[in-house]
Amino acid sequence: MVAGAPVVVTHALGRYPVYVEPGALDRLEALVAHHLGAARVAMIADADVFTLLQAGRLGRAAWAGDSLTFPAGERSKTRDQWARLTDTLLERGYGRDSGIVALGGGVAGDLAGFVAATYMRGVPCLQVPTSLLAMVDASVGGKTGVDTPQGKNLIGAFHPPVAVLADPRALATLPEREYRSGMAEAVKHGLIADGGFFAWMEHEADGLLRREEAALTRLVRRSVEIKAEVVSADERESGRRVTLNAGHTVAHALEQATAYGLAHGEAVALGLVAECALAEALGVAPAGLGARVARLLARLGLPVRLAQPIAPERLVGAMGSDKKNRGGRVRFALPRALGVMDATAADDRWTREAPEVEIRRALEAIC
Fold this sequence. Notes:
The protein contains 13 helices and 13 strands. The protein folds into 2 domains: 167 residues, Rossmann fold, CATH 3.40.50.1970; 187 residues, Dehydroquinate synthase-like, alpha domain.
């Protein structure tokens, strides 16, 4: 693909571009006008990120249009916050000709995207991810939603954006912990679909930690290409798309068990280690795969063991609400080799059950 050309994601109703360009936020207003046309546009933004935008730290121009903000953090991704935002749009007289710009990390994309998916039965949304986690994962694929006390993302909708604008220069503003957290999803993409990309991350780990622009741009672009390929082939998560949940069965349980004290990327890193251990124990993956994954995650500054152990039975219990489950049984999307996922389970092409005793043993790899 030519440098600078957008990555194109296709879906049932059409397609949308993902712009991965250093400095692309300088063109925010022009791209909003191009993709949302004459719509009355409201920006829904993480309050901290919106402050950076207005101060000129994300691009050359501040946002001159209407805006609604919410407190930063996963605790804002709730039905209450969704209701407040939609009520505000109604109070301001937004109609069916409205458009939404979602600015911020994964929480902003999920929450604002869910507002767009449900407001007036659906209005267009342009995603502007500003965290590494959102750029490489959450902003692409059309998933939107909110959390509940029973688990993450259990209330939501598929609502593809009209475009995604990912500017790697915005990552200079991220706190170190949040920046490193985003690396976990990129590692996951290499693990599930591209061993060469995984090896490139091993080679470029130091440059990635220094936030070198060329390395970051390639990291984001290749991750978006991988996710675009998967979601374009399986928009509604009825088949291969479930492989994007590698590491997430354990990760979501960890987040729930720690009351979201773990950052999502940290939980995914730990989940990848545990689920690789499970794949090895079940004979799905060769011995040593988990150790290689753990080495790269550790080099990128991500945890590979819990700082404070959690009882395995508590995590197994938290896995009961995972969306991949069928008939009340916990299911996992497991790697078969570096860059290859298991597609041999007889009853479900891309996921498989595991005996609880093996799940508990696999959790010992991180506990």
